[in-house]
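[Meeting: bench + compute handoff]

Bench side (C.D.) handed over the final construct sequence. Compute side (W.E.) agreed to return the predicted structure before the next meeting so the bench team could plan truncations. Sequence as handed over:
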Amino acid sequence: MSRETQQYMKYTLSTQAIERIIPSEEAILLCQKISDGKLNANTAVDKIKQKYGLTRG
């Protein structure tokens, strides 16, 4: 993950912490994979939807 991406992640997580919104470890890992170019954002969303039994539409 690039330094710029790390800064964005820290900013986002800090903002969420202020609002008391805590993303799951899985969500953070998916974001890291997207940032590293190892995962497509649509695939990440599909994985989260599948985990919670949601469908497109």
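W.E. noted at the follow-up: The radius of gyration is 12 Å. C.D. will use this when planning the next construct.
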